[in-house]
Amino acid sequence: MLKVILPVLLFAGATTFAAERHFDFTQLPVGASPTNFVSGLTGNGAPGTWKIIERDGKRALTQMDLDPTDEHFPVLLLDDEIFSDFSATIHFKIVGGEKEQMAGIAFRAKDERTYYVLRVSALGNNVRFYKFLGGLRSTPIGPEIKVSRDEWHALGVQCDGNKIFCFLDGKQAIPMITDTSFIKGKIGLLTKSDAQVLFSDLHIDYTPHLPFAQGLVKDMMEQFPKKKLLGIKIYAPQSGSEKPRVIAATDSKDMNAEGGDFEIKTLKGANGFFTKSKSLVELTLPLRDRNGEVAAVVKFAMKPFPGETQEAAWGRCKPIQAAMEDRMQSVNNLRE
Q1: Among residues 226, 327, 235, 228, which one has the least CA distance to residue 272?
Q2: Is the pLDDT of residue 22 over 60?
Q3: 3-state secondary structure of 174
Q4: Is residue 75 located within the same domain as residue 124?
């Protein structure tokens, strides 16, 4: 359920982000399609064709298949990154359309049928926020606002946790929205039916999304300081090979490394393996999902205690293993 409360402009303006991406479509050659973006469709008809054109001496991105079908939403999603907390702005100009004159931004998209939308209409002179869930559209909310044709505008959205802020030309257009349907996803552009829209550039400031498995490693290192952990690696199965591969690690240099015999045997059901030297104790243990099946393998590296036995080392690691298993549901959960 959507909830609307009074604006919190200070909150929206005070948020800072650690990374940014900028896509200047005016710099691409005429006839090109932007790389790293994937065309899709919500509703009826076929996916759109997105190309760079030149109009009035300036290049811009547009959706070229002007299908007047109702409930026809061509969407172009940036496909190489997931965004959770971010601020995004798209510059656009609505130049035509008989049935629709609509431009929008899709965000926190799971796929082409499931995402939030902020859009404007020059025919309806309004700003609307809604969401698609499996292609089904929620009830739109938003005010009547004059949206001129043949002029450049800026549509902006900011997400901070469950708080969503919506902007048109730098001014907050809708009171702050709180919604928990989607916590992360892709960002993209949206039109409807035969709307003719030019897009010049997309700018995204964001906090990089930490994959679940990597966040799990980070949390365990912080949660169990008394265990004298030196590092943790999580291995997950990889298609076409019996060797699992590192998908999360304390040391980034270990990422994507293939496992050896211990990891292979543990993934196949062994209880685990123990090795010890003067400076290092390592335990390789299974990570089981909610059904009790081995979904992945975790390797703990620790400082040894004097005279430490295998049983004592296992005792150190068992609470960490249990905490990790308590938070994971499946190997797909680890890869999110």
Answers
A1: 235
A2: yes
A3: strand
A4: yes
